[in-house]
Amino acid sequence: KRILLLLAAFSLLLSACGREDLSVLRPQGPVAQGQLDLMKLAITIMVVVLLVVFAIAAFVLIKFRRKPGQNEIPEQVEGNHKLEIIWTVIPLVLVIILAVPTVQQLSALGKDYTKDENALQVKVTAHQYWWEFSYPDLGVTTAQDLIIPTDKTISFVLESNDVIHSFWVPSLAGKIDTNFDGTLNKFHFSAPNEGVYRGKCAELCGPSHAYMEFKVKAVSQEEFDNWVTAMQAPAVLPEDEQLAEKFKSACLSCHAVGDQGGPLGPNLTGIGGRESIASMLLNEREGQEGAPVEENLKEWLHDPQAIKPGNEMPSPAELGLTTEEVDAIAEYLADYKLDYETNSAD
Ligand code: CUA
């Protein structure tokens, strides 16, 4: 009964890990697949060892138990070369079976793609509590939604702006730390299937660590090229001139849109088309539950600390913005979408 309860609890735990876009158990790329294969191999070996040891222990307990009327001490045996060799060689063989694919994977993971001309180079900079993605060869910087083509290896160089974070997209690859002392970590993966994969910060980094999510959006090469072109276009500012001035003075001192603004906060180019606002407020779109992007932007802008405690975004009062101005900026940003998705039905 207890074992059944335990099994039920365990399967519940596994099913909680079962979200397709956030699961190491449902790999969507070769790196994650290789790592899952290794886990399966290790678990299989462990289970077999466990079963054999338990079976032998049960057999010994039953076969050599003290029988009624048996009062003399049994024959005492010491040393058995044959047995000792067997129980040394078997673990050795098991360790070799584990070690060979592990070392192979490690060396494949350690391969440097930063000079590979066929790979897409991406620089990841982690901030409390958001992700900056820049494409040095394309002159493009974005935040929170990492857009990548499906048919290329993505080569990452990672660092942090403040404390140690960890970059993790469970369905694409294992995690890697981002350091703030200038040490650059290198990493790579590929995502051959189009789709949106959730990423998480996997290193406790402050009060909003749990809200430090990002998305990886794998698209066709054509869509990726369209996106890059749209990102390289000049900034689209609010049509209303007064609002444009407000937006420039209040927002563009930290944030950038198109070719204008600063690099301190997340780049806002095309923010209206992103998967979520401030990581956790999901935007309504096909196949995804969420609120309209405009509502999410308003919720975020009116009280950023309520969504992500400890973040660097000032409140409207600190920025000198009225409720109406915040609403107008939210509406403008919600409309700031990049038209890059090719519809295969067209
Ligand atoms: Cu960044 Cu946890």
Automatic annotation (TrEMBL):
Reaction catalyzed: 4 Fe(II)-[cytochrome c] + O2 + 8 H(+)(in) = 4 Fe(III)-[cytochrome c] + 2 H2O + 4 H(+)(out)
CDD domains given in the database record: CuRO_CcO_Caa3_II (cd04213)
Requisite cofactors: Cu cation
Principal place of residence: membrane
Domain Cytochrome c span(s) in chain numbering: 238-337
Top-level EC class as recorded in UniProt: translocase
Membrane-topology annotation of the record: Multi-pass membrane protein
Cofactor annotation comment: Binds a copper A center.
TM spans (from-to): 42-62, 83-103
Record SUPFAM superfamilies: Cupredoxins (SSF49503), Cytochrome c (SSF46626), Cytochrome c oxidase subunit II-like, transmembrane region (SSF81464)
Cytochrome oxidase subunit II transmembrane region profile domain mapped to chain residues: 16-113
Primary role: Subunits I and II form the functional core of the enzyme complex. Electrons originating in cytochrome c are transferred via heme a and Cu(A) to the binuclear center formed by heme a3 and Cu(B).
Protein name: Cytochrome c oxidase subunit 2
